[in-house]
Amino acid sequence: MSASEPEATQDYSNKNGTRTFAGWRVSGSDSVPLGAPGALLGALALAGVILCVAATFTPVIEIVVLTARKATYTGMDRHSVALLLIGAFALAVILGAARGAQPAMLALAACGVAVLLIAILGDLPHLDDAGVWPRADSFEDARAQAGTGYFLETAAGVLLFASGVGMLLVARGRRS
User: Fold this and answer.
1) What percent of the chain has pLDDT over 70?
2) Cα–Cα dist 71/64, whole Å
3) What's the angle, vertex CA 6, arms to CA 4 and CA 12, rounded to 5?
4) Is 103 helix (H, G, I), strand (E, B) or coil?
5) Which residues are bridge partners to 71 per DSSP?
6) In which region does residue 62 sit, left (phi positive, over 0), alpha (psi from -120 to 50) or beta (all else)?
7) What is the C-alpha separation between 17 and 28, in angstroms, rounded?
């Protein structure tokens, strides 16, 4: 018999090899350079990384008695090296995200969410709580207030999240 072997057909296979997750293409070979908007969003993400580092070493919560600052708690005191680790990871994915890799863009947005969760869930409930200071019971007028570090970490989270989502939107617009 001279019948040929059956061959595979393209009926149910993915022709270009890309996968989708919630409508977004996630293949690395599918990246689209973002050009000037990507560079601008990458610069914003870099600013977010710098703010993460700055927030680690600046006061997040300040304890004030009347007009005197009695105690300060930095980002390092409040959550150890978490902001530094998130900032380092964000720094590692900025280049890939600016070049158009969508998994890196998602990771960048996730870094922003992580920093915002630290600020909102970890620090916000204690901004008005003088009880974080062990000697608060000794002073009637002791009060806690947000320090510069709290605003820096919140801005860092917003910048990282906005740049990741912005890059995803630019990539989707260039693909269409």
Assistant:
1) 80
2) 7
3) 155
4) helix
5) 63
6) beta
7) 10
Q: What is the pLDDT of residue 137?
A: 72
Token pair, residue 152, equals 């820096």
Dist CA 38 CA 112 (whole Å): 17
Consecutive H or E run containing 144 = strand 142-146
Mean pLDDT of 41-51: 97
Give the Cα separation of 68 and 71 in Å (integer).
Answer: 9
Question: What is the CATH architecture assignment of 35-175?
Answer: Up-down Bundle (1.20)
Task: Name residue, tokens 């270009």.
Answer: 16
Question: What is the value of pTM for the model shown?
Answer: 0.78
User: Which pair of tokens denotes residue 133?
Assistant: 């200071």
- Supply 175's token pair: 């693909």
